[in-house]
Amino acid sequence: MAMDRTKAGASIEIKQQKRPDLVAEEIKRLITEKDLKPGDRLPREVELQQMFSVSKSTIREALKSLEVQGLIKVTTGPSGGGTIVEVPLDRTLQLLQNYLFFKDVTIDDIYTVRQLLEPELAAGAVPHLTEQDFVALDANIACCDGAGSVHGDKDIVRKRQEDVNFHDILAAANPNPFLRFSCELINEMIRQLIEFRNDTPQAEHERFGQANVRIHKAIVKAARDRDAQKVRELMVVHMTEAPRYVKRMKGKLRGRLILDSEIRRRMKIEPAAGS
C-alpha cells in the first residue's frame, strides 16, 4: 500500500510559478527588506531587469500584477516604474467580497462582529479625539439630523452613509491599526452591500435616522467628557439596536461581486463645512 501511494505521489506534477509571478514575489521581498513606504519608488524598469536577469515584458507583467494587488502605482516612459502606495480599503473589500460571495453571510453575522469590535474601537479612540475630530462628529450628526428633511431615495442613501461615516471618524482616532482596519472594512461593506427595499416606508428611515442621531449625540457627549467606559456601553446599545432597525426596514446584503469600476480611493475624513 505504501509503495502504491508513493508511486501515485510521484506522478503528481508540481505546478511551477510563471516567471513574472516569481519576479513579483522578489519585488515584494525587496519592498520588505528595504522597508519601503507609500511614496517610495522602486528601482527603474531597466534596473529591475538587470537585478533579476529577465526581459522588459517580464518586469512589466510583474509590476502590473503588483499594481492589480494595490501595492504599487505604475508609470510609463524612460523613467517609468513603480511607486509604493497604501493598499486602498476598497480594493481590500473587493478581494474579501470575492471570498464572501460564495459564503452565506447575513446582516446578523456582520452585526455580531460589530457588537464585539465597535465598542472597543470607540472606547479606545476617546483619549485621542481632538477638537477637529469633535467638529467632524458634530457636523456628521447635523447632516443626519432633522426627521422631516429627507427628500427622495438619494437623500435617504446619503444619510445612511453619513451614519456609517460617524464610525469612520472614531476609527481614524483609534491608535490600534488592526482594530481600525477591521472596523473600517466592515463599514465599507455596509456602505456598499446593504440595500433597502424600495417599498420601505420613509417613516422607517426617519425613525432609524433619529435613533442614530440620539445615540451618536450621547456618544459624543460621553467622549467629550473623556468617559471611555460610558462610550463603550453606549456603543454596545447602538450595535444591538441598529440591526433591529435594518431588518425592520427589510435591509439585505447584495450578493454580488464588486466591479473594478466601483473601486474608489477613500479620502481622508475632514470636518464637513456647513454640511
UniProtKB/TrEMBL annotation:
Residues 17-88 form the HTH gntR-type domain. It holds the Pfam family GntR. One of its GO terms (molecular function) is DNA binding. Keywords: DNA-binding, Transcription, Transcription regulation. PANTHER family: TRANSCRIPTIONAL REGULATOR, GNTR FAMILY (PTHR43537), UXU OPERON TRANSCRIPTIONAL REGULATOR (PTHR43537:SF5). This is GntR family transcriptional regulator.
